[in-house]
């Protein structure tokens, strides 16, 4: 590639080929910092601030309730923290490697996180009296901040996605023909849906802390084994594509079957448990010795919002998991088409290939 050739990018940047792309280090081939536009830096700054502020308020809320695993407040706190970490990961890789799929995943996950925060706020406001409520100002502040940041994300996401449609990064690596850039698009989508499935799997596993199924031993086993298996599955999938290994491909699909089994277990137990809860009498009137004295007892509604979150997590996770399996197969069809030489050339990639 001619290092003297220059290209004028939107925003007035005029960069040579060597300045536009960096090929060394632990991140592999990626965009240079000089190639990232000012509105992309703004996008990353706002996303980071949103995650830090939201997580800070969430942690303050969790500290207030004492970290009791039996408290349903913990479910929403854990969901928010897990989603925030993956949101930053989507944003970082989307900007560094100019991936439309990661930016879309960031925006969709941000909207999903906002829905969690909104539903949680109004549910707790309706279920708890003002005298019994604890730190309602934290939930309100988190709600306002989440909505404000998401309003800012909408125009920035549109601008970035429209800019990324020109596909400058992959053109630098594979040329102007669409067919030559196809392997990179397939890998980018595969990597994105795998991380999305991992995020949702962890959320579903953590919700098992609350024994909503009634099988406490099984839930504890799933939690202790499930999260490491999910991360192993993610690592094997990434290694399969980057090392172009058919052995890792077999391991990837073998582990995928376990995840499908877990999702089936979660879905069936959630349906059964939600039906049992819905059959409970809304109110029970207990009469005492005198006709004028009655007591009305309401069954606990703590588990009700958990079911709604679980249905969303499991459904989205099932869709993302099946999609990752399909794109994983398409990735294997792209082996030997130049991804290793042009993209997967970080120090870690080279170290693993030299030894294995």
Quick structural overview:
This protein folds into two domains: 22-166, no CATH class; 174-281 and 299-356. Helices cover 71% and strands 5% of the residues.
The helicity comes to over 70%
What pattern of helices and strands is seen along the backbone? EEHEEHHHHHHHHEEHHH
Question: Number of folding domains?
Answer: 2
What fraction of residues sit in β-strands? 5-15%
Report, as a whole number of angstroms, the end-to-end distance. 30 Å
The geometry reads as globular
Multimeric state = single chain
Strand order, sheet with most strands:
1-2
Residue runs with pLDDT of under 50 for 5 or more positions: 1-17, 283-304
Main sheet attributes: strand count, strand direction, barrel closure = 2 strands, antiparallel
Mean pLDDT: 76
Strand-pairing-aware structural class = mainly alpha
Radius of gyration: 24 Å
Your description of this structure?
The protein has 356 residues and is mostly helical. It has two domains: 22-166, no CATH class; 174-281 and 299-356. 71% of the residues lie in helices and 5% in strands. The chain is built from twelve helices and six strands. The strands form three sheets. A two-stranded antiparallel sheet has the order 1-2. It has a two-stranded antiparallel sheet with strand order 3-4. It has a two-stranded antiparallel ribbon with strand order 5-6. A hairpin with a 7-residue loop joins strand 3 and strand 4 (30-31). Helix 3 packs antiparallel against helix 4 (100-127) and helix 7 runs antiparallel to helix 8 (216-243). The protein is globular and about 60 Å long. The two termini are 30 Å apart.
